[in-house]
Amino acid sequence: MAVGGETGGPRDTLGLGTIDTVISVEEVERQAAQFAADAPSPDTLRALSAGDPFMRIEGLVAGYGKMEVLHGFDLYVGRGQSLCLVGPNGAGKSTVLHSIYGFTDIKGGAISVNGRDVTRLSPNQKLKTAGIAYILQDNSVFPDMTVRENLLMGGYLKDSPAKAQEAADKVLEKYPRLKERHDKRAGVLSGGERRLLEISRALIMEPDVLLVDEPSIGLEPRFIEMVFEILADLQQVEGKTIIMVEQNAKKGLEFADIGYVLVSGQLAKAGTGDDLLNDPEVGRLFLGG
């Protein structure tokens, strides 16, 4: 990982860091753990959510089978806010999303949305009755299905096929780029269009909360900008609450209202996205400068 270092070393002609500025993942984790000792209090986290959390995670202990990944993790985010999780590989960022959606073994703690305890609900229940949708980081479109058929797959929990069709029509009206290709195989779409289709499919159930895992992964820069513009519209115009993991920590924090830094399954630091962008320690360890 390239991070900012002292001046005066070998020239960095590619912007990737020099021998003096590259440190190992293990060293990043060790240094990050030093400021984890001053982890933010629940009161600080609630204040970042404007004092009125729409989603709460309190004391979450979770993992996979016997492997515990999250150790007493807290999260508070207000309705219509966005929160980005950053940290080294293996810190537990995606496990937070997995736990919210019901993909992990939860050993302790609680998750609630709008005052309702959703900790033990299944993924289907969270999508249909709790208003939580998950946008996976992997290419999850069905390439041999048309754009419309992919959207209808997102409505499989609707009460009737007619309601799924109605929801698909609504989404297609919102995104003319997809409407123009509604009868085309998803496999012929560009990378950015496929990501748009994945986001749109998650909207079919009209969720309140979007869990977004690595929205920029594998995309060209022009498509990355498009995806973040779409997410900004969903938050600012439609009032969606967004919890995101983003490999490009700088981009994620520029987008988000709130940023959390995770280290070894625990919350090490929290602040507004701007605060973390301007934090020299966060910049040195995670933002490449």
Structure, explained:
The structure is a single chain. With 289 residues, the chain is α/β, with parallel strands linked by helices. It has a domain at 79-105 and 115-277: Rossmann fold (3-Layer(aba) Sandwich). It is built from 12 helices and 10 strands. It has helices at 25-36, 42-48, 93-101, 123-128, 147-153, 161-174, 176-179, 191-203, 221-236, 249-255, 273-277, 280-286, and strands at 53-64, 67-78, 82-86, 105-113, 116-117, 132-135, 209-213, 241-245, 258-263, 266-272. The chain has a 6-stranded mixed sheet, with helices on both faces. A 4-stranded antiparallel sheet has the order 2-1-4-5. The radius of gyration is 20 Å and the shape is globular. Residues 1-21 have low confidence and may be disordered.
How would you describe this structure in keywords?
289 residues; Rossmann fold; four-stranded antiparallel beta sheet; 10 strands
- So, the CATH homologous superfamily of the domain at 79-105 and 115-277? P-loop containing nucleotide triphosphate hydrolases
CATH architecture of the domain at 79-105 and 115-277: 3-Layer(aba) Sandwich
Strand content: 15-25%
The total of beta strands comes to: 10
The assigned structural class equals alpha/beta
| Poorly predicted tracts of residues | 1-21
Shape: globular
* Largest β sheet strand count, sense and barrel closure: 6 strands, mixed
Helix fraction bin: 25-40%
Integer average pLDDT = 88
- N-to-C series of helices and strands: HHEEEHEEHEHHHHEHEHEEHH
The helix tally amounts to: 12
Radius of gyration, whole Å? 20 Å
Distance between the termini: 11 Å
Q: Going across the biggest sheet, name each strand in turn.
A: 6-7-8-3-9-10
Task: Fill in the CATH topology of the domain at 79-105 and 115-277.
Answer: Rossmann fold
Assembly level: single chain
The CATH class label of the domain at 79-105 and 115-277 is Alpha Beta
